[in-house]
Design brief:
Elements lengths: L5 H9 L2 E9 L2 E9 L6 E5 L17 H4 L3 E5 L17 H18 L5 E6 L1 H12 L6 E5 L10 H8 L5 H9 L7 H14 L13 H9 L6 H5 L11 H8 L3 H5 L5 E6 L7 H11 L4 E6 L8 H16 L5
Parallel strand pairs: 3-4, 3-5, 5-6, 6-7, 7-8
Antiparallel strand pairs: 1-2, 2-4
């Protein structure tokens, strides 16, 4: 779409792995960017949050040398957004996207049969990473998550208690208290999510330094792989009218799958996260007695990682990779 700077061109030129593949994932042709400094590096498949390929997307070629110097990064704009924009109607389910994710992993394995394969998932992506292991407990070698969704998303006592301590209007608070998870509407969900974002640190903690989105946005606007419509579809895309996925998410309980993971599964959870409760995750990990399941609470962080959170992600991915042996 625009002019790439010299540094980015040098990074891209220095990556021995740097290619967009078009694969059929779950019955839909989709584009996936794979890039890394060397073909023998461990692989990290990124699973982004709901409906927005941020921070990692197919338009990010050459933007994250701190990651591509250590890993072969797999950037997938999930069907319905970014370069793979598509109308996600209410016929789609969590199972639809889990199938796409499994297909993605198999395609990556064919390209790199000897490399370690990790997943880095955020928010909604953590549902997919969990569901993938439910389908095949050892399809990959390890998982790192930021903002693991477990159960009772949004409509719970913890959210109410946090909002009661804010300046939210009494009428809004009472309206939220009346909502029942089992029959919540799209408007109900919007009310709760906006209130959490506006009045609390549940989404993004105001104390922590935010992730540097400016350079990422500029990088996407000058991407060699994105057109303007792809950039626009980061936020305004095929998910706009979908509610079938959220209906499932509101009822989901992944506790049983997580308690029994058979590969290293490391969760980073913001201490003020209200979208995916830190206390729920801590309790789950502690009670599981499963050495594969680990959790670290990130101070001054909400559901979305800030600058320090992303630095921690890079550090933990490196440590996770070094601690994994592949037969």
């Amino acid at each position: 779409m625009g002019y790439m700077n010299k540094r980015r061109k040098e990074i891209i030129a220095g990556n021995k792995v740097s290619e967009i593949y078009e694969w059929n994932l779950g019955g839909y042709n989709q584009k996936v960017l794979i890039e890394g400094k060397d073909e023998n590096l461990p692989i990290v498949i990124t699973l982004h949050g709901s409906g927005a390929p941020i921070p990692f997307s197919v338009g990010c070629r050459g933007l994250f040398p701190e990651f591509t110097n250590q890993f072969i990064m797999v950037y997938w704009d999930q069907l319905g957004c970014g370069i793979n924009n598509y109308l996600i109607d209410d016929s789609f389910s969590i199972a639809s996207f889990a199938e796409m994710t499994v297909d993605l992993i198999h395609n990556v394995k064919k390209l790199f049969p000897r490399n370690k394969i990790l997943i880095f998932a955020m928010s909604w992506g953590s549902i997919l990473s969990t569901k993938v292991l439910e389908k095949d407990s050892k399809i990959i070698n390890g998982v790192l998550v930021y903002g693991q969704i477990v159960k009772e998303v949004f409509f719970n006592e913890e959210v109410i208690a946090a909002l009661e301590k804010t300046k939210i209007s009494k009428s809004k608070l009472e309206a939220i208290k009346r909502i029942k998870r089992e029959n919540a509407s799209s408007k109900d969900l919007q009310l709760v999510t906006r209130s959490i974002g506006q009045y609390t640190d549940g989404k993004q903690n105001k104390k922590g330094k935010p992730a540097p989105m400016g350079p990422i946005i500029k990088g996407l606007l000058t991407s060699p792989d994105y057109h303007f419509n792809d950039f626009k579809a980061i936020m305004i895309n095929g998910y706009q009218k979908n509610f079938s996925l959220w209906r499932e998410i509101l009822q989901i309980d992944l506790s049983g799958i997580l308690e029994n993971v058979q590969i290293p599964y490391v969760i980073l959870q913001g201490d003020t996260d209200l979208v995916a409760s830190a206390s729920t995750v801590k309790t789950l990990v502690r009670n599981s007695g499963n050495p594969n399941l680990q959790c670290e609470i990130v101070e001054d962080s909400g559901h979305m990682p800030g600058k320090e959170g992303m630095e921690l992600v890079l550090e933990k991915l490196g440590r996770l990779s070094r601690n994994i042996s592949v037969d």
